[in-house]
Every structure is written in structure tokens, then in C-alpha cells.
Amino acid sequence: HNADSYIDYAGYDRDYTRASLIANWDLGFATLTSTTAVNSSEVKFDQDTDFASAAAFLVGTNVFGDFRGKFNEKVEDQSQELRLTSNGDGRLRWLVGAYYAHEEARRITFNFSEATRNPALARISPQNREATTLAVFGSVDVDVTDRFTLGLEARWNQDELSASTIERITTTDVRY
């Protein structure tokens, strides 16, 4: 960082938490597997985006100086998969399963590169994103001979995505 004396650049700070659990139950004729995962991340990023240590060439402007980028982001997601797999005995093997995942992300971007040193003129861009995935799947393998296996797999998948971004310039309020 090449922070000027009037700005303290925070740098990059990330907190990330991940947890997962995989459980298997032997049912004799098949194995039931459950895979559960939860993730959470929070990122704060602040930097001098032109990497020039020079102060503004024209006093009171951002010409050749103070190009600053900053964002705060929080992302959380959860997923669950259930899968039933045959025990593999005999010439026929199969698998069926279902999957669900959901993610929510919130980001606020502050861009000072189009403004003067006054943060009240910064461009602020809140962004929101949501994604949900649903799926069911299955497969069948049949040993036709000792050297030839016929297999069939299928998957149905649905994704719902939504996102929004609002671009705005603040006017006089320096509180974000």
C-alpha cells in the first residue's frame, strides 16, 4: 500500500468458515450417504487502485492521484445431498440421489476514482445475489458380459438466480 497521509488503507481482511458432515448408513442392500455443507465468508478490501504514491497533481482533484477501491462482501451458502447406492453385488448396480444448494451474497462497493478526495462524492454500488439449485440424479450399470458393461445416467437440474446492482453517487453525506 502507498497510502497518503490523509487516508489509511485497510488492505484485505477475510473471515471464512467452512463446515461439512458426511454420514454413511449401511442398509445391507445399499448405502445411504448424506453430505451437508455450510460456508460463510466476510471480506473487506480497501486499496489504492492506481498504485501511485503521488498526491493529486491538481490540488483538490483526483487527477493522477488517490484512485481508491473498496468493498465489503458477505456470502453464505448451504448444501445438502442424499444418495442411495446399491451394494454392488451381482451384475446390476444403481445409484439415485437428490441435491439442494442455496447461496446469498451481499456486496457494497465504494469507488473513489471518479471523485475528488471527498468521500461524499464516491460511487457506491450495492449488489445482491441469490442462487438456489435443485437436482435429482440416477445411474444404472449392467454387466452384459464379463468384459462389457452397459451404463445409463440421468440428471435433472434447476437453477434459480437473482441479482441486483444499484449504481449511485452520494451527494453530501459521508456516512455510508
Low-confidence stretches: 1-6, 54-65
Content-based structural category: mainly beta
Total DSSP helices: 0
| Main β sheet profile | 7 strands, antiparallel
Strand content: over 45%
Gist of the model:
The chain is mainly beta and 176 residues long. The protein has strands at residues 11-26, 30-48, 68-86, 92-111, 123-143, 149-165, 168-169.
Would you write up a description of this structure?
The chain is mainly beta. Helix content is 0%, strand content 65%. Strands 1, 2, 3, 4, 5, 6 and 7 form a seven-stranded antiparallel β-sheet that branches. The radius of gyration is 26 Å and the shape is elongated. The chain starts with 10 loop residues before the first strand and ends in a 7-residue tail after the last strand.
List keywords for this structure.
single chain, 176 residues, mainly beta, seven-stranded antiparallel beta sheet, 7 strands, 0% helix, disordered N terminus
Helix/strand layout:
Elements: E1 11-26, E2 30-48, E3 68-86, E4 92-111, E5 123-143, E6 149-165, E7 168-169
Antiparallel strand pairs: 1-2, 2-3, 3-4, 4-5, 5-6, 5-7
